[in-house]
UniProtKB/TrEMBL annotation, chain A:
Catalytic activity as recorded in UniProt: guanosine(34) in tRNA + queuine = queuosine(34) in tRNA + guanine
GO BP field: tRNA modification
Active site positions: D60, D234
Record-listed E.C. numbers: 2.4.2.64
Species per Swiss-Prot/TrEMBL record: Nelumbo nucifera
Family listed: Belongs to the queuine tRNA-ribosyltransferase family.
All copies of domain tRNA-guanine(15) transglycosylase-like, residue ranges: 1-334
Originating gene: LOC104604272
NCBIfam families linked to this entry: Q_tRNA_tgt, tgt_general
Protein name per the record: Queuine tRNA-ribosyltransferase catalytic subunit 1
From TrEMBL, chain B:
PANTHER family in UniProt: QUEUINE TRNA-RIBOSYLTRANSFERASE ACCESSORY SUBUNIT 2
UniProt KW keywords: Cytoplasm, Metal-binding, tRNA processing, Zinc
GO terms for biological process, alphabetical: tRNA modification
Residues annotated to bind Zn(2+): C259, C261, C264, H290
A molecular-function term among this protein's GO annotations: metal ion binding
Keyword check for Zinc: yes
Name of the protein described by the UniProt record: Queuine tRNA-ribosyltransferase accessory subunit 2
Span of the signal peptide: none
Length: 365, 333
């Protein structure tokens, strides 16, 4: 899911998003509530109409942005207290308020307000946050005015503690929600801890409901999480890295600002069929990324195309029964020397995917 | 193109402008002056070459270097190197600019590669009717495919322009196209067309878009447009609206009703207003699409009016609608 923070994916038209094969876009409740406000969006018929996006939308609860963007945000049992960025007044975002705002914006999937804690934090705060998330999901469910039009997803919290995670999963599953997100990750924890939490959650969540790993991420992370049973992802990475002049390719990344690109007349990725790779050279894009907004626009287009294709390919390979082969092919291109990171190997083992053909044997140390 | 990025070597490797930009169905005209990033600097220009102010500093371009660029870019049309001077230069400097420009035309033609595309001879002469005429006569004697009229949009007033334009076009053969640089406002375009200009390049649309403006002037020749004083208070008028203004926050109409551009077919004024407020790139993209479309529509109307022999009537009506708005604004003020 590309992130269309303020009601747009930076620099791309909805037409282009459809071209790329994008099915669903994420909008940030915090930003939209600020400008142009959820009331205005509601008055004008909802976010789909406002942006003219005929496909699906998902909004987050607004809580994460507040905690990460605002200086004096604080979490209490009532909700998230913060200073209004407009006039400095103390404000409170409750689970009820978050759901109401999301009801007005009108996305197809809405997220519960959770008490999200960074995985790098330890101690009783994590337990407190997990239990509070469960109490808040009940308040969210009660406040939800459009359950037949908007799907409310719960978010599993619990830090890196398997006991807490387990309790949270059980609690949410008990509420029988349309879908579940695995939250609190993608915040700086080490990869080894990261995949274990994902694996534990996906094993315990119902098989017939979508599992959404929030804030993920890098193509490699998406492949691993998919092997572990996750379905949905959101991340600013493809579009943000485009704005820094970096393109996503099967081998990893290509830095278009590098001087070597100035004379390179190949497309970004000769195997890619997107509009950008079909029409433009690295040399031309190299010029643009340093001087013109169109550079980042073209790279965003290509990067999103790459991500959409990755999702489609993962999906197709599962249906066709050749998922392990696809994963091996992916890893071989990214790690031609066979130096697949250990965490990936461990995760794939737990997922039951044999990738021995693309891993060089570990040197004994 | 003078900014050296991509390098000429890279452009040649790619195969020229059409390949590089992926715009194969279009024609390209290469001119030395780009009114945004490459401005003629008449104080720096000397007999060796033309000087330009660019983001990379001042650059002096000789005819030989210029022709190397042309052969790399492979445009369909290219203008010869010119010494453009602003309206207030001295007589002597003005005369020198004409002599130089003609000399450089000869240099460029001599260096022209066989498949170099059509050359448009550059004509300068500042705000002297005499020099304009002299330059035009000299250039028309050379073997060129058309004419590139430079030195406008550099300080002359709209009132003195027709005489200067006519001094040039009266002398030029009728069957060869004339292109002008630096003339962009609709009224100025009409002036140019009246004097016999065929092609225009300007930064008008670019600056409109940057400012958050959208063109709205009446395109349907049958409808009467009623100007609004309220609009002018927020920088909008008969020709354009300022989409940053708060009155558009909830306006769910397209920029122009019935406009067939992508922006008007898909988006509302309210959405663009929001995009401008949150500084999203998409705002400029959508505005540029509409403004370009609208502006090109204006040129189409001009061509139709000429074909029907009603060009002067078209001009009068157009200017009248604009004046009507100003009159009402003056009355209400």
């Amino acid at each position: 899911m590309p992130v269309g923070t303020q009601g747009t994916i930076k620099g791309l038209t909805t037409n282009q998003l459809e071209e790329i094969g994008c099915q669903i876009v994420l909008g940030n409740t915090y930003h939209l509530a600020l400008r142009p406000t959820s009331e205005l969006i509601d008055e004008l018929g909802g976010l789909h109409k406002f942006m003219n996006w005929p496909r699906a939308l998902l909004t987050d609860s607004g809580g994460f942005q507040m905690v990460s963007l605002l200086h004096l945000a604080d979490i209490t049992e009532e909700g998230v207290t913060f200073q209004s960025p407009v006039d400095g007044k103390p404000m409170l975002l409750t689970p009820e308020e978050s759901i109401q705002i999301q009801n007005r914006i009108g996305a197809d999937i809405i997220m519960a307000l959770d008490d999200v804690v960074k995985t790098t934090i330890t101690g009783p705060r994590i337990e407190e946050a997990m239990y509070r998330t469960l109490r808040w999901i009940d308040r969210c469910i009660a406040a939800h005015k459009r359950p037949s039009e908007q799907n409310l997803f719960g978010i599993v919290q619990g830090g890196l503690d398997p006991v807490l995670r387990d309790k949270c999963v059980r609690g949410l599953v008990h509420r029988n929600l349309p879908g579940y997100a695995i939250g609190g990750l993608a915040g700086g924890e080490d990869k080894d801890s990261f995949w274990r939490v994902v694996a534990q959650c996906t094993a315990a969540l119902p098989e017939d409901k979508p599992r959404y790993v929030m804030g993920v991420g890098y193509p490699l992370d998406i492949v691993v999480c998919s092997a572990l049973g996750a379905d949905m992802y959101d991340c600013v990475y493809p579009t943000r890295t485009a704005r820094f002049g970096t393109a996503l390719i099967p081998e990893g990344v290509l830095k278009l600002k590098h001087t070597a690109m100035a004379d390179d007349v190949r497309p970004i990725d000769p195997t890619c069929n997107c509009m950008v790779c079909k029409n433009y050279t690295r040399a031309y894009i190299h010029c643009l990324v340093t001087k013109d907004a169109m550079g980042s626009q073209l790279l965003s287009y290509h990067n999103l195309y790459y991500m959409m294709k990755l999702g489609r390919d993962l999906h197709t390979s599962i249906i066709q029964g050749c998922f392990p082969e696809f994963v091996c092919g992916f890893l071989q291109k990214m790690f031609p020397k066979g130096d697949v990171p250990e965490w990936v190997c461990n995760a794939m083992e737990v997922a039951g995917i044999d990738i021995s053909s693309c891993c060089a044997p570990f040197s004994s140390s | 193109m003078l900014l050296d990025c991509p390098s000429l070597k890279a452009i040649s490797k790619i195969g020229g402008l059409h390949q590089m930009l992926g715009l194969h169905g279009y024609s390209f005209a290469a001119v030395p002056r780009d009114s945004l990033l490459c401005l003629p600097n008449c104080d720096g220009t000397n007999k060796i070459g033309a000087s330009f102010e660019t983001p990379c500093g001042r650059m002096l371009i000789k005819s030989a270097e210029y022709m190397k660029m042309i052969s790399s870019l492979k445009p369909n049309i290219w203008a010869s190197l010119a010494d453009e001077v602003p309206a207030w230069t001295s007589e002597k400097r003005n005369r020198t600019s004409v002599d130089r420009t003609v000399q450089w035309l000869d240099d460029c033609i001599a260096l022209d590669p066989a498949d170099g595309g059509a050359v448009f001879g550059a004509i300068v002469g500042g705000s002297s009717v005499g020099e304009r005429s002299r330059c035009a006569q000299e250039v028309s004697r050379r073997n060129v495919s058309g004419y590139w009229i430079g030195g406008f949009g550099l300080g002359e007033s709209m009132d003195e322009r027709p005489a200067l334009l006519n001094a040039v076009t009266d002398v030029l053969p009728e069957e060869k196209p004339r292109q002008i640089c630096g003339i962009g406002l609709p009224e100025e375009v009409l002036q140019g067309v009246a004097a016999g200009i065929d092609l225009f390049d300007s930064t008008y649309i670019y600056h409109l878009t940057l400012g958050g403006f959208a063109l709205t002037f009446q395109m349907d020749r049958s409808k009467e447009h009623v100007p609004s004083y309220q609009l002018s208070k927020i920088g909008s008028d008969n020709a354009k609206i300022n989409l940053r203004a708060t009155i558009y926050r909830k306006d769910t109409s397209p920029i122009v009703d019935g406009c067939s551009c992508y922006t008007c077919q898909n988006h509302t004024r309210a959405y663009i207003n929001h995009l401008l407020n949150v500084h999203e790139m998409l705002a400029q993209i959508l505005l540029e699409i509409h403004n370009t479309h609208h502006y090109l529509g204006f040129f189409r109307l001009i061509r139709e009016a000429i074909k029907e022999g009603k060009f002067e009537l078209f001009c009068q009506k157009f200017i009248q609608t604009r004046r009507g708005h100003l009159v009402e604004a003056a009355v209400c003020a």
